[in-house]
Design a protein that fits this description.
mainly alpha, Endonuclease III, domain 1, elongated
Length: about 230
């Protein structure tokens, strides 16, 4: 008898909890504001690159008031290597200004308020809520979107709809860690071009037969090639 989607999700999360016991956010930060800035910078950029940039940036600029003292051109120079540096600099300075003027220099703790900040959408807001304030949030990035679709927990490519679909399948208390685990699983195992299906902890609960077949054929090809080495 087929498992219900909630039951299958529970089994998937149980497997991921064993394979990824401590799903911490990879962005280095010392405050909610630093995490907010790092997350804005992480768009279309690796966490490693962002951490390299923020290790320099946060030495001088670590509060909204600090960023109100920096010229846009100087900020662009510092964050240049993260890509899309002009729009990111504009968002960061706009967010800092709004935090100072409307929120007393403090990062707000609600989704409704966070998404009023320039450059902040639901993904960024959920990162901050979950990892800075301990408020459950379902982060949907490109990895989570891919894994959720391959597992057929959603049929959508829209991040907002995927967030709703995933949240409906698990207790609210699991949202933050679950999304972190799905993200890490997608980054390292359920990769876009060459998913490592063989040996994947979710193999028995995953309906992505196309990807499984491709993975099996790659393994068979490698095994055949090794016979002649």
């Amino acid at each position: 008898m087929p498992l219900s989607e909630k039951t299958r999700m529970a089994k998937v999360l149980s497997c991921l909890e064993k394979s990824i016991p401590l799903p911490k956010v990879a962005l280095t930060h010392k405050s909610p504001f630093e995490l907010l800035i790092a997350t804005i910078l992480s768009a279309q950029c690796t966490d490693a690159r962002v951490n390299k940039v923020t290790s320099v940036l946060f030495k001088t600029y670590s509060t909204p008031s600090d960023f109100l003292k920096i010229f846009c051109k100087r900020l662009e120079e510092i964050i240049h290597s993260t890509g899309f540096y002009r729009s990111k600099a504009k968002s960061i300075l706009g967010a800092a200004k709004k935090l100072e003027e409307r929120f007393g220099g403090q990062v707000p703790k609600t989704m409704e308020e966070l998404i009023t900040l320039p450059g902040v959408g639901r993904k960024t807001a959920n990162v901050v809520l979950g990892h800075a304030f301990g408020i459950p949030g379902m982060v949907v990035d490109t990895h989570v979107r891919r894994v959720a679709n391959r597992l057929q927990f959603t049929r959508s490519q829209n991040p907002d709809q995927i967030e709703k679909d995933l949240c409906a399948l698990m207790p609210q208390s699991k949202w933050t860690d679950a999304s972190s685990r799905l993200l890490l699983h997608g980054r390292h195992v359920c990769r876009a071009r060459t998913p490592l299906c063989i040996g994947c902890t979710l193999f028995n609960f995953c309906p992505a037969e196309k990807e499984k077949g491709m993975s099996e054929r790659r393994l068979q090809g490698l095994q055949s090639a090794m016979k002649y080495v």
